Amino acid sequence: xxxxxxxxxxxxxxxxxxxxxxxxxxxxxxxxxxLPANKSMVGTKKQKITLREDQYCMLSNPYNAEKQVCDMGxxxxxxxxxxFSLFPGEELTTKPMNACLLNKNxxxxxxxxxxxxxxxxxxxxxxxxxxxxxxxxLFIPKKHEKIVVPPVVPKKFIRDATNISDNEAVYVRxxxxxxxxxxxxxxxxxxxxxxxxYLKSLTDDEYDALQLPYEPRSNAYSIxxxxxxxVCVTDYKESKERYVLGPDRILLGPHEAVKVINLSxxxxxxxxxxxxxxxxxxxxxxxxxxxxxxxDNAVLNLTVAYKWKFILDDANLHKIFAGDFVGYSCQSxxxxxxxxxxxNDFEHFHTNSSQLLRDKLFxxxxxxxxxxxxxxxxxxxxxxxxxFNFLVFSIDVRAIKPVDKEIxxxxxxxxxxxxxxxxxxxxxxxxxxxxxERIESETNLSKLRKNLIEIENNNLTKEKIEKxxxxxxxxLEKATSEALAQSLLHQSKLNLQLENMRSQxxxxxxxxxDRYIEYMKVMSMSKNVLQATIIPSSTRNLxxxxxxxxxxxxxxxxxxQYEEEY
Length: 566
Description:
Blueprint: E1 4-8, E2 12-18, E3 24-28, E4 31-35, E5 39-47, E6 49-51, E7 55-60, E8 63-64, E9 69-70, E10 75-79, E11 82-84, E12 91-92, E13 97-98, E14 100-102, E15 106-112, E16 116-118, E17 123-125, E18 130-134, E19 137-139, E20 145-147, E21 159-160, E22 162-164, E23 169-174, E24 180-184, E25 187-189, E26 195-197, H1 204-210, E27 222-225, E28 229-235, E29 240-245, E30 248-251, E31 256-258, E32 261-265, E33 270-276, E34 278-280, E35 282-293, E36 299-310, H2 325-341, H3 346-361, E37 363-371, E38 374-385, E39 390-402, H4 405-508, H5 511-524, H6 548-565
Antiparallel strand pairs: 1-4, 2-3, 2-5, 6-11, 7-10, 7-12, 7-13, 8-9, 14-19, 15-18, 15-20, 15-21, 16-17, 22-25, 23-24, 23-26, 27-30, 28-29, 28-31, 28-34, 32-33, 35-36, 36-39, 37-38, 38-39
Helix pairs in contact: 2-3
Protein backbone atom coordinates (compact mmCIF):
# COMPACT_ATOMS: atom_id res chain seq x y z
CA UNK A 1 0.00 0.00 0.00
CA UNK A 2 1.52 3.35 -1.14
CA UNK A 3 0.98 6.61 0.78
CA UNK A 4 1.42 10.08 -0.75
CA UNK A 5 2.28 13.01 1.49
CA UNK A 6 2.13 16.66 0.31
CA UNK A 7 1.87 20.26 1.63
CA UNK A 8 -0.59 23.02 0.63
CA UNK A 9 0.48 26.54 1.45
CA UNK A 10 -1.80 29.38 2.54
CA UNK A 11 -2.68 30.55 -1.02
CA UNK A 12 -3.01 27.08 -2.59
CA UNK A 13 -5.74 24.46 -3.02
CA UNK A 14 -6.10 21.05 -4.66
CA UNK A 15 -8.79 18.63 -5.79
CA UNK A 16 -8.70 15.01 -4.58
CA UNK A 17 -10.82 12.20 -6.08
CA UNK A 18 -11.82 8.90 -4.52
CA UNK A 19 -10.90 6.27 -7.09
CA UNK A 20 -13.44 3.76 -5.74
CA UNK A 21 -16.53 6.01 -5.51
CA UNK A 22 -15.57 8.73 -8.02
CA UNK A 23 -16.38 11.57 -5.62
CA UNK A 24 -14.13 14.61 -5.46
CA UNK A 25 -13.29 16.86 -2.59
CA UNK A 26 -11.52 20.20 -2.02
CA UNK A 27 -8.36 20.60 0.03
CA UNK A 28 -7.32 24.16 1.00
CA UNK A 29 -4.02 25.31 2.52
CA UNK A 30 -2.31 25.75 4.75
CA UNK A 31 -2.44 21.98 5.10
CA UNK A 32 -0.21 18.90 5.22
CA UNK A 33 -2.14 15.96 3.89
CA UNK A 34 -1.58 12.27 3.31
CA LEU A 35 -3.34 10.59 0.40
CA PRO A 36 -4.32 6.97 0.96
CA ALA A 37 -4.01 4.39 -1.77
CA ASN A 38 -7.62 4.81 -2.94
CA LYS A 39 -7.37 8.57 -3.45
CA SER A 40 -5.43 10.65 -5.92
CA MET A 41 -4.95 14.37 -6.64
CA VAL A 42 -6.57 15.73 -9.76
CA GLY A 43 -4.09 17.78 -11.69
CA THR A 44 -1.68 19.92 -9.77
CA LYS A 45 -1.93 22.35 -6.92
CA LYS A 46 -3.64 25.61 -7.89
CA GLN A 47 -3.41 29.21 -6.70
CA LYS A 48 -6.44 30.61 -4.88
CA ILE A 49 -8.40 33.37 -6.65
CA THR A 50 -7.97 36.79 -5.02
CA LEU A 51 -10.33 39.71 -5.72
CA ARG A 52 -9.68 43.27 -4.63
CA GLU A 53 -12.45 45.53 -3.37
CA ASP A 54 -13.12 46.95 -6.85
CA GLN A 55 -12.94 43.59 -8.69
CA TYR A 56 -15.37 40.83 -9.59
CA CYS A 57 -15.55 37.61 -11.60
CA MET A 58 -18.19 35.28 -13.05
CA LEU A 59 -18.44 31.74 -11.68
CA SER A 60 -20.26 28.86 -13.44
CA ASN A 61 -21.70 25.77 -11.70
CA PRO A 62 -21.47 27.32 -8.23
CA TYR A 63 -21.17 25.01 -5.22
CA ASN A 64 -24.33 24.65 -3.08
CA ALA A 65 -23.24 24.25 0.51
CA GLU A 66 -26.66 23.02 1.67
CA LYS A 67 -26.93 20.29 -0.94
CA GLN A 68 -23.14 19.85 -1.02
CA VAL A 69 -23.26 19.65 -4.80
CA CYS A 70 -22.69 22.09 -7.64
CA ASP A 71 -25.69 23.72 -9.27
CA MET A 72 -24.89 22.77 -12.79
CA GLY A 73 -25.81 25.28 -15.51
CA UNK A 74 -26.07 28.21 -13.18
CA UNK A 75 -23.69 31.12 -12.70
CA UNK A 76 -23.02 33.73 -10.06
CA UNK A 77 -21.00 36.95 -9.72
CA UNK A 78 -18.38 36.94 -6.99
CA UNK A 79 -17.42 40.39 -5.67
CA UNK A 80 -14.25 41.38 -3.82
CA UNK A 81 -12.58 41.76 -1.50
CA UNK A 82 -12.36 37.99 -1.28
CA UNK A 83 -9.99 35.08 -1.63
CA PHE A 84 -11.56 31.71 -2.50
CA SER A 85 -10.91 28.33 -4.03
CA LEU A 86 -12.88 26.54 -6.74
CA PHE A 87 -14.83 23.49 -5.69
CA PRO A 88 -14.64 20.47 -7.96
CA GLY A 89 -17.02 21.18 -10.85
CA GLU A 90 -16.90 24.99 -10.52
CA GLU A 91 -15.52 26.95 -13.46
CA LEU A 92 -14.21 30.51 -13.64
CA THR A 93 -16.08 32.02 -16.59
CA THR A 94 -14.16 35.30 -16.56
CA LYS A 95 -10.89 36.21 -14.99
CA PRO A 96 -10.97 38.89 -12.25
CA MET A 97 -12.13 42.16 -13.78
CA ASN A 98 -12.17 45.71 -12.48
CA ALA A 99 -15.54 47.21 -11.59
CA CYS A 100 -16.74 50.09 -13.78
CA LEU A 101 -16.18 53.38 -11.97
CA LEU A 102 -18.54 55.93 -13.54
CA ASN A 103 -18.34 59.65 -12.98
CA LYS A 104 -21.19 62.12 -13.39
CA ASN A 105 -21.03 62.30 -17.20
CA UNK A 106 -20.49 58.59 -17.94
CA UNK A 107 -22.82 55.65 -18.45
CA UNK A 108 -22.99 51.97 -19.48
CA UNK A 109 -25.37 50.15 -21.76
CA UNK A 110 -26.54 46.89 -20.14
CA UNK A 111 -28.31 43.91 -21.74
CA UNK A 112 -30.49 41.60 -19.65
CA UNK A 113 -29.56 37.95 -20.35
CA UNK A 114 -32.59 36.47 -18.50
CA UNK A 115 -35.82 37.67 -16.99
CA UNK A 116 -35.14 39.02 -13.51
CA UNK A 117 -36.27 41.64 -11.04
CA UNK A 118 -33.86 44.57 -10.66
CA UNK A 119 -33.94 45.43 -6.97
CA UNK A 120 -31.95 48.66 -7.35
CA UNK A 121 -34.26 50.24 -9.93
CA UNK A 122 -37.38 48.33 -8.86
CA UNK A 123 -38.09 47.20 -12.43
CA UNK A 124 -38.63 43.79 -13.96
CA UNK A 125 -36.17 43.21 -16.75
CA UNK A 126 -36.88 41.01 -19.73
CA UNK A 127 -34.34 38.89 -21.53
CA UNK A 128 -32.74 40.94 -24.32
CA UNK A 129 -33.81 44.30 -22.83
CA UNK A 130 -31.30 47.14 -23.08
CA UNK A 131 -31.01 49.85 -20.45
CA UNK A 132 -28.45 52.31 -19.12
CA UNK A 133 -26.64 52.75 -15.83
CA UNK A 134 -25.50 56.32 -15.18
CA UNK A 135 -22.82 57.61 -12.85
CA UNK A 136 -21.61 58.54 -10.40
CA UNK A 137 -21.43 54.93 -9.20
CA LEU A 138 -19.24 51.84 -8.94
CA PHE A 139 -21.01 49.27 -11.13
CA ILE A 140 -20.58 45.51 -10.95
CA PRO A 141 -22.86 43.55 -13.30
CA LYS A 142 -25.16 40.92 -11.85
CA LYS A 143 -25.29 37.36 -13.13
CA HIS A 144 -28.21 38.21 -15.43
CA GLU A 145 -26.52 41.33 -16.88
CA LYS A 146 -24.03 41.89 -19.66
CA ILE A 147 -22.22 45.10 -20.59
CA VAL A 148 -22.79 45.98 -24.24
CA VAL A 149 -19.55 46.92 -25.94
CA PRO A 150 -19.86 49.99 -28.21
CA PRO A 151 -19.04 49.28 -31.88
CA VAL A 152 -16.88 52.39 -32.26
CA VAL A 153 -14.30 51.55 -29.57
CA PRO A 154 -14.70 47.80 -28.84
CA LYS A 155 -12.34 47.76 -25.86
CA LYS A 156 -14.04 50.64 -24.07
CA PHE A 157 -17.05 49.68 -21.95
CA ILE A 158 -17.65 53.09 -20.37
CA ARG A 159 -19.35 55.64 -22.60
CA ASP A 160 -19.13 59.40 -22.12
CA ALA A 161 -22.18 61.63 -22.13
CA THR A 162 -22.33 64.20 -24.91
CA ASN A 163 -21.54 67.66 -23.52
CA ILE A 164 -23.54 70.30 -25.38
CA SER A 165 -22.63 73.92 -24.78
CA ASP A 166 -24.94 76.90 -24.84
CA ASN A 167 -26.13 77.85 -28.35
CA GLU A 168 -25.13 74.41 -29.61
CA ALA A 169 -27.04 71.24 -30.42
CA VAL A 170 -26.58 67.59 -31.47
CA TYR A 171 -28.56 65.52 -33.98
CA VAL A 172 -29.92 62.24 -32.51
CA ARG A 173 -31.63 59.37 -34.33
CA UNK A 174 -33.96 56.78 -32.80
CA UNK A 175 -32.81 53.32 -33.89
CA UNK A 176 -36.31 51.84 -33.55
CA UNK A 177 -38.30 54.44 -35.49
CA UNK A 178 -35.50 56.28 -37.39
CA UNK A 179 -36.98 59.50 -36.06
CA UNK A 180 -34.55 62.42 -35.93
CA UNK A 181 -34.41 65.12 -33.29
CA UNK A 182 -32.12 67.94 -32.21
CA UNK A 183 -30.98 68.19 -28.58
CA UNK A 184 -30.07 71.75 -27.55
CA UNK A 185 -27.59 72.72 -24.83
CA UNK A 186 -26.44 73.55 -22.32
CA UNK A 187 -26.54 70.01 -20.88
CA UNK A 188 -24.76 66.66 -20.74
CA UNK A 189 -26.91 64.31 -22.81
CA UNK A 190 -26.93 60.57 -22.25
CA UNK A 191 -28.03 58.65 -25.31
CA UNK A 192 -30.80 56.19 -24.74
CA UNK A 193 -30.11 52.53 -25.57
CA UNK A 194 -32.09 52.92 -28.80
CA UNK A 195 -30.45 56.22 -29.81
CA UNK A 196 -27.31 57.23 -31.64
CA UNK A 197 -25.77 60.44 -32.84
CA TYR A 198 -26.90 61.19 -36.36
CA LEU A 199 -24.39 62.43 -38.94
CA LYS A 200 -26.19 65.05 -41.01
CA SER A 201 -24.79 65.86 -44.45
CA LEU A 202 -25.49 68.86 -46.69
CA THR A 203 -25.29 69.40 -50.43
CA ASP A 204 -22.10 70.68 -52.03
CA ASP A 205 -23.76 74.05 -52.69
CA GLU A 206 -24.72 74.35 -49.04
CA TYR A 207 -21.20 73.49 -47.91
CA ASP A 208 -19.83 76.14 -50.29
CA ALA A 209 -22.35 78.75 -49.17
CA LEU A 210 -21.63 78.08 -45.48
CA GLN A 211 -17.88 77.79 -46.15
CA LEU A 212 -17.66 74.42 -44.42
CA PRO A 213 -15.64 71.28 -45.27
CA TYR A 214 -17.46 68.54 -47.15
CA GLU A 215 -17.95 66.33 -44.07
CA PRO A 216 -21.16 65.21 -42.34
CA ARG A 217 -21.31 65.84 -38.61
CA SER A 218 -23.55 65.27 -35.63
CA ASN A 219 -23.05 68.75 -34.18
CA ALA A 220 -25.80 71.04 -35.41
CA TYR A 221 -24.88 73.42 -38.22
CA SER A 222 -24.79 76.99 -36.95
CA ILE A 223 -25.35 80.11 -39.07
CA UNK A 224 -24.29 83.49 -37.70
CA UNK A 225 -26.19 86.40 -39.24
CA UNK A 226 -24.81 89.93 -39.11
CA UNK A 227 -26.92 93.07 -39.18
CA UNK A 228 -28.77 93.59 -42.51
CA UNK A 229 -28.47 89.94 -43.51
CA UNK A 230 -31.24 87.46 -44.30
CA VAL A 231 -31.32 83.67 -44.70
CA CYS A 232 -34.03 81.33 -45.96
CA VAL A 233 -34.38 78.03 -44.03
CA THR A 234 -36.34 75.21 -45.67
CA ASP A 235 -38.03 72.49 -43.59
CA TYR A 236 -38.33 69.44 -45.87
CA LYS A 237 -40.50 67.54 -43.38
CA GLU A 238 -43.13 70.28 -43.11
CA SER A 239 -42.54 71.69 -46.63
CA LYS A 240 -42.22 75.20 -45.22
CA GLU A 241 -39.81 78.08 -45.56
CA ARG A 242 -38.92 80.63 -42.92
CA TYR A 243 -36.89 83.82 -43.24
CA VAL A 244 -34.54 85.00 -40.51
CA LEU A 245 -33.20 88.57 -40.35
CA GLY A 246 -29.95 89.42 -38.59
CA PRO A 247 -28.42 90.02 -36.20
CA ASP A 248 -29.20 86.46 -35.07
CA ARG A 249 -27.77 82.97 -34.71
CA ILE A 250 -29.71 79.93 -35.90
CA LEU A 251 -29.17 76.17 -35.70
CA LEU A 252 -30.32 73.98 -38.57
CA GLY A 253 -32.70 71.25 -37.47
CA PRO A 254 -32.26 67.62 -38.62
CA HIS A 255 -34.85 68.16 -41.39
CA GLU A 256 -33.78 71.69 -42.33
CA ALA A 257 -31.52 73.13 -44.99
CA VAL A 258 -30.64 76.58 -46.27
CA LYS A 259 -31.65 77.97 -49.63
CA VAL A 260 -28.61 78.68 -51.79
CA ILE A 261 -28.56 81.31 -54.55
CA ASN A 262 -26.00 81.44 -57.35
CA LEU A 263 -25.14 85.09 -58.01
CA SER A 264 -23.20 86.76 -60.78
CA UNK A 265 -19.80 88.09 -59.85
CA UNK A 266 -16.55 89.47 -61.11
CA UNK A 267 -15.90 92.47 -63.38
CA UNK A 268 -17.49 92.27 -65.89
CA UNK A 269 -20.32 90.32 -64.31
CA UNK A 270 -20.41 86.56 -64.99
CA UNK A 271 -23.12 84.10 -63.98
CA UNK A 272 -22.82 81.48 -61.20
CA UNK A 273 -19.66 82.91 -59.68
CA UNK A 274 -20.85 83.29 -56.07
CA UNK A 275 -22.87 80.85 -53.94
CA UNK A 276 -24.50 82.42 -50.90
CA UNK A 277 -27.18 81.53 -48.40
CA UNK A 278 -27.15 84.64 -46.22
CA UNK A 279 -28.03 87.63 -48.40
CA UNK A 280 -26.82 91.10 -47.49
CA UNK A 281 -29.69 93.60 -47.58
CA UNK A 282 -27.53 96.64 -48.28
CA UNK A 283 -26.50 99.35 -48.53
CA UNK A 284 -23.75 97.82 -50.73
CA UNK A 285 -21.86 98.32 -54.02
CA UNK A 286 -21.40 96.33 -57.22
CA UNK A 287 -19.21 97.12 -60.22
CA UNK A 288 -19.74 96.23 -63.90
CA UNK A 289 -17.77 96.78 -67.09
CA UNK A 290 -19.06 96.73 -70.66
CA UNK A 291 -18.78 98.48 -74.05
CA UNK A 292 -21.05 101.27 -75.34
CA UNK A 293 -21.23 103.15 -78.64
CA UNK A 294 -21.87 106.89 -78.89
CA UNK A 295 -23.79 108.81 -81.54
CA ASP A 296 -20.59 109.55 -83.47
CA ASN A 297 -19.64 105.80 -83.42
CA ALA A 298 -17.03 106.04 -80.68
CA VAL A 299 -16.78 102.67 -78.92
CA LEU A 300 -16.10 103.11 -75.22
CA ASN A 301 -15.23 100.65 -72.46
CA LEU A 302 -17.34 101.79 -69.50
CA THR A 303 -16.69 100.91 -65.82
CA VAL A 304 -19.72 101.67 -63.66
CA ALA A 305 -20.30 101.31 -59.90
CA TYR A 306 -23.83 100.96 -58.50
CA LYS A 307 -25.04 101.51 -54.96
CA TRP A 308 -27.99 99.29 -54.04
CA LYS A 309 -30.21 97.96 -51.26
CA PHE A 310 -33.30 95.80 -50.77
CA ILE A 311 -36.67 97.33 -49.94
CA LEU A 312 -37.70 95.32 -46.87
CA ASP A 313 -41.27 94.08 -46.99
CA ASP A 314 -42.23 91.52 -44.37
CA ALA A 315 -44.93 90.12 -46.66
CA ASN A 316 -42.56 89.64 -49.63
CA LEU A 317 -39.26 88.46 -48.14
CA HIS A 318 -39.35 85.52 -50.57
CA LYS A 319 -38.51 87.95 -53.40
CA ILE A 320 -34.99 88.36 -52.00
CA PHE A 321 -34.32 84.68 -52.83
CA ALA A 322 -36.17 84.69 -56.17
CA GLY A 323 -32.99 84.49 -58.25
CA ASP A 324 -29.80 86.18 -59.40
CA PHE A 325 -30.71 89.78 -58.63
CA VAL A 326 -27.14 90.96 -59.37
CA GLY A 327 -26.96 89.51 -62.88
CA TYR A 328 -30.53 90.52 -63.74
CA SER A 329 -30.13 94.13 -62.62
CA CYS A 330 -26.70 94.57 -64.26
CA GLN A 331 -27.98 93.17 -67.57
CA SER A 332 -31.00 95.49 -67.49
CA UNK A 333 -28.90 98.53 -66.65
CA UNK A 334 -26.43 97.73 -69.43
CA UNK A 335 -29.11 97.89 -72.08
CA UNK A 336 -30.45 101.22 -70.81
CA UNK A 337 -26.96 102.74 -70.57
CA UNK A 338 -26.18 101.62 -74.14
CA UNK A 339 -29.43 103.19 -75.27
CA UNK A 340 -28.59 106.50 -73.61
CA UNK A 341 -25.00 106.56 -74.91
CA UNK A 342 -26.19 106.08 -78.49
CA UNK A 343 -28.14 109.36 -78.23
CA ASN A 344 -25.10 111.49 -77.34
CA ASP A 345 -21.83 112.26 -79.08
CA PHE A 346 -18.53 111.29 -77.55
CA GLU A 347 -17.57 114.67 -76.09
CA HIS A 348 -20.91 115.29 -74.42
CA PHE A 349 -21.24 111.75 -73.10
CA HIS A 350 -17.66 111.73 -71.83
CA THR A 351 -18.11 115.01 -69.99
CA ASN A 352 -21.59 114.45 -68.51
CA SER A 353 -21.89 110.65 -68.35
CA SER A 354 -22.82 110.30 -64.68
CA GLN A 355 -25.51 113.00 -64.76
CA LEU A 356 -26.95 111.70 -68.06
CA LEU A 357 -27.26 108.19 -66.70
CA ARG A 358 -28.87 109.34 -63.46
CA ASP A 359 -31.46 111.35 -65.36
CA LYS A 360 -32.16 108.41 -67.67
CA LEU A 361 -32.25 105.55 -65.16
CA PHE A 362 -33.65 106.98 -61.93
CA UNK A 363 -37.15 108.04 -60.96
CA UNK A 364 -39.27 108.30 -57.82
CA UNK A 365 -41.38 105.41 -56.48
CA UNK A 366 -44.12 105.35 -53.84
CA UNK A 367 -44.17 101.82 -52.43
CA UNK A 368 -46.61 100.22 -50.02
CA UNK A 369 -44.68 97.85 -47.73
CA UNK A 370 -45.48 95.87 -44.59
CA UNK A 371 -43.29 96.41 -41.53
CA UNK A 372 -44.06 94.84 -38.14
CA UNK A 373 -47.58 94.04 -39.29
CA UNK A 374 -48.35 97.60 -40.44
CA UNK A 375 -48.61 98.85 -44.01
CA UNK A 376 -46.66 102.05 -44.68
CA UNK A 377 -45.88 104.14 -47.77
CA UNK A 378 -42.16 104.42 -48.51
CA UNK A 379 -40.85 106.91 -51.08
CA UNK A 380 -37.57 106.00 -52.81
CA UNK A 381 -35.62 107.30 -55.80
CA UNK A 382 -33.61 105.09 -58.17
CA UNK A 383 -34.19 102.10 -60.43
CA UNK A 384 -36.45 99.50 -58.80
CA UNK A 385 -36.52 95.85 -59.86
CA UNK A 386 -39.81 94.76 -58.35
CA UNK A 387 -39.12 91.04 -59.01
CA PHE A 388 -36.60 91.14 -56.15
CA ASN A 389 -37.59 94.38 -54.33
CA PHE A 390 -34.07 95.43 -55.39
CA LEU A 391 -33.30 99.16 -55.68
CA VAL A 392 -30.28 100.73 -57.41
CA PHE A 393 -30.25 104.31 -56.13
CA SER A 394 -26.82 105.62 -57.12
CA ILE A 395 -24.54 105.30 -60.15
CA ASP A 396 -20.96 106.40 -60.59
CA VAL A 397 -18.95 106.18 -63.84
CA ARG A 398 -15.53 105.09 -62.64
CA ALA A 399 -13.75 105.02 -65.99
CA ILE A 400 -14.42 105.70 -69.68
CA LYS A 401 -11.81 104.19 -71.98
CA PRO A 402 -12.09 104.25 -75.81
CA VAL A 403 -11.60 100.91 -77.50
CA ASP A 404 -9.91 102.52 -80.54
CA LYS A 405 -6.27 103.31 -79.73
CA GLU A 406 -6.25 106.43 -81.89
CA ILE A 407 -9.28 107.87 -80.16
CA UNK A 408 -7.79 106.84 -76.85
CA UNK A 409 -4.61 108.77 -77.65
CA UNK A 410 -6.60 111.82 -78.77
CA UNK A 411 -8.72 111.56 -75.65
CA UNK A 412 -5.61 111.28 -73.53
CA UNK A 413 -4.12 114.36 -75.19
CA UNK A 414 -7.42 116.19 -74.77
CA UNK A 415 -7.57 115.18 -71.14
CA UNK A 416 -3.99 116.32 -70.62
CA UNK A 417 -4.74 119.66 -72.31
CA UNK A 418 -7.89 120.01 -70.25
CA UNK A 419 -5.92 119.17 -67.15
CA UNK A 420 -3.29 121.78 -68.02
CA UNK A 421 -5.99 124.37 -68.67
CA UNK A 422 -7.74 123.37 -65.49
CA UNK A 423 -4.48 123.51 -63.53
CA UNK A 424 -3.69 126.93 -65.00
CA UNK A 425 -7.20 128.10 -64.21
CA UNK A 426 -6.95 126.73 -60.73
CA UNK A 427 -3.57 128.40 -60.31
CA UNK A 428 -4.93 131.78 -61.51
CA UNK A 429 -7.97 131.34 -59.32
CA UNK A 430 -5.73 130.50 -56.39
CA UNK A 431 -3.52 133.55 -57.00
CA UNK A 432 -6.56 135.82 -57.35
CA UNK A 433 -8.03 134.33 -54.25
CA UNK A 434 -4.74 134.78 -52.41
CA UNK A 435 -4.55 138.44 -53.51
CA UNK A 436 -8.13 139.04 -52.48
CA GLU A 437 -7.44 137.41 -49.15
CA ARG A 438 -4.31 139.60 -48.73
CA ILE A 439 -6.26 142.80 -49.49
CA GLU A 440 -9.05 141.68 -47.24
CA SER A 441 -6.51 140.89 -44.51
CA GLU A 442 -4.91 144.35 -44.85
CA THR A 443 -8.36 145.99 -44.77
CA ASN A 444 -9.23 144.03 -41.67
CA LEU A 445 -5.87 144.97 -40.17
CA SER A 446 -6.52 148.69 -40.86
CA LYS A 447 -9.93 148.38 -39.30
CA LEU A 448 -8.38 146.73 -36.30
CA ARG A 449 -5.79 149.49 -36.00
CA LYS A 450 -8.49 152.16 -36.27
CA ASN A 451 -10.53 150.38 -33.65
CA LEU A 452 -7.42 150.15 -31.47
CA ILE A 453 -6.78 153.92 -31.74
CA GLU A 454 -10.42 154.66 -30.96
CA ILE A 455 -10.25 152.36 -27.99
CA GLU A 456 -7.05 154.04 -26.77
CA ASN A 457 -8.62 157.54 -27.18
CA ASN A 458 -11.72 156.42 -25.39
CA ASN A 459 -9.58 154.96 -22.63
CA LEU A 460 -7.58 158.23 -22.34
CA THR A 461 -10.79 160.32 -22.23
CA LYS A 462 -12.25 157.99 -19.68
CA GLU A 463 -9.04 158.18 -17.69
CA LYS A 464 -9.09 162.03 -17.66
CA ILE A 465 -12.79 162.13 -16.80
CA GLU A 466 -12.24 159.64 -14.05
CA LYS A 467 -9.24 161.60 -12.74
CA UNK A 468 -11.24 164.89 -12.77
CA UNK A 469 -14.12 163.13 -11.11
CA UNK A 470 -11.84 161.77 -8.40
CA UNK A 471 -10.18 165.18 -7.88
CA UNK A 472 -13.57 166.94 -7.78
CA UNK A 473 -14.82 164.42 -5.36
CA UNK A 474 -11.71 164.95 -3.22
CA UNK A 475 -12.13 168.76 -3.29
CA LEU A 476 -15.80 168.38 -2.49
CA GLU A 477 -15.00 166.11 0.38
CA LYS A 478 -12.28 168.58 1.55
CA ALA A 479 -14.67 171.59 1.36
CA THR A 480 -17.33 169.57 3.10
CA SER A 481 -14.85 168.63 5.81
CA GLU A 482 -13.69 172.25 6.22
CA ALA A 483 -17.27 173.53 6.35
CA LEU A 484 -18.08 170.84 8.85
CA ALA A 485 -15.04 171.86 10.90
CA GLN A 486 -16.02 175.57 10.79
CA SER A 487 -19.52 174.66 11.74
CA LEU A 488 -18.28 172.54 14.60
CA LEU A 489 -15.91 175.38 15.72
CA HIS A 490 -18.68 177.97 15.54
CA GLN A 491 -20.98 175.66 17.38
CA SER A 492 -18.29 175.10 19.99
CA LYS A 493 -17.86 178.88 20.42
CA LEU A 494 -21.58 179.35 20.76
CA ASN A 495 -21.74 176.52 23.22
CA LEU A 496 -18.81 178.09 25.15
CA GLN A 497 -20.48 181.49 25.17
CA LEU A 498 -23.73 179.94 26.25
CA GLU A 499 -21.90 178.09 28.97
CA ASN A 500 -20.15 181.30 30.07
CA MET A 501 -23.48 183.07 30.16
CA ARG A 502 -24.95 180.28 32.20
CA SER A 503 -21.94 180.38 34.54
CA GLN A 504 -22.23 184.18 34.80
CA UNK A 505 -25.90 183.88 35.54
CA UNK A 506 -25.14 181.33 38.15
CA UNK A 507 -22.50 183.65 39.72
CA UNK A 508 -24.86 186.58 39.69
CA UNK A 509 -27.34 184.62 41.66
CA UNK A 510 -24.99 184.45 44.70
CA UNK A 511 -23.18 186.93 47.11
CA UNK A 512 -20.38 187.50 44.67
CA UNK A 513 -22.99 188.69 42.18
CA ASP A 514 -24.26 191.31 44.57
CA ARG A 515 -20.77 192.63 45.11
CA TYR A 516 -20.17 192.77 41.42
CA ILE A 517 -23.38 194.75 40.87
CA GLU A 518 -22.37 197.18 43.57
CA TYR A 519 -19.01 197.50 41.90
CA MET A 520 -20.56 198.23 38.59
CA LYS A 521 -22.76 200.89 40.21
CA VAL A 522 -19.76 202.59 41.72
CA MET A 523 -17.93 202.46 38.41
CA SER A 524 -20.88 204.10 36.74
CA MET A 525 -20.80 207.08 39.21
CA SER A 526 -18.83 210.27 38.78
CA LYS A 527 -15.41 209.94 37.40
CA ASN A 528 -14.13 212.15 40.24
CA VAL A 529 -14.36 209.36 42.66
CA LEU A 530 -10.92 207.97 42.68
CA GLN A 531 -11.42 205.23 45.13
CA ALA A 532 -14.46 203.44 46.46
CA THR A 533 -14.95 200.69 48.86
CA ILE A 534 -17.83 198.32 48.46
CA ILE A 535 -19.01 196.71 51.55
CA PRO A 536 -21.62 194.10 51.09
CA SER A 537 -24.68 194.48 53.23
CA SER A 538 -24.10 191.06 54.59
CA THR A 539 -20.80 192.06 56.09
CA ARG A 540 -21.46 193.02 59.69
CA ASN A 541 -18.23 192.15 61.40
CA LEU A 542 -16.20 194.93 59.78
CA UNK A 543 -15.79 197.63 62.46
CA UNK A 544 -12.78 199.50 61.45
CA UNK A 545 -12.45 200.56 57.93
CA UNK A 546 -9.04 200.68 56.53
CA UNK A 547 -7.48 203.39 54.49
CA UNK A 548 -8.31 204.03 50.91
CA UNK A 549 -5.46 201.77 49.81
CA UNK A 550 -7.09 198.85 51.62
CA UNK A 551 -10.36 199.41 49.80
CA UNK A 552 -8.53 199.69 46.53
CA UNK A 553 -6.76 196.45 47.21
CA UNK A 554 -10.04 194.77 47.97
CA UNK A 555 -11.60 196.08 44.75
CA UNK A 556 -8.52 195.05 42.82
CA UNK A 557 -8.84 191.58 44.28
CA UNK A 558 -12.54 191.33 43.46
CA UNK A 559 -12.47 192.74 39.88
CA UNK A 560 -10.03 190.27 38.42
CA GLN A 561 -12.06 187.55 39.93
CA TYR A 562 -15.12 188.64 38.04
CA GLU A 563 -13.22 189.28 34.87
CA GLU A 564 -11.86 185.81 35.03
CA GLU A 565 -15.25 184.31 35.73
CA TYR A 566 -17.14 186.30 33.10
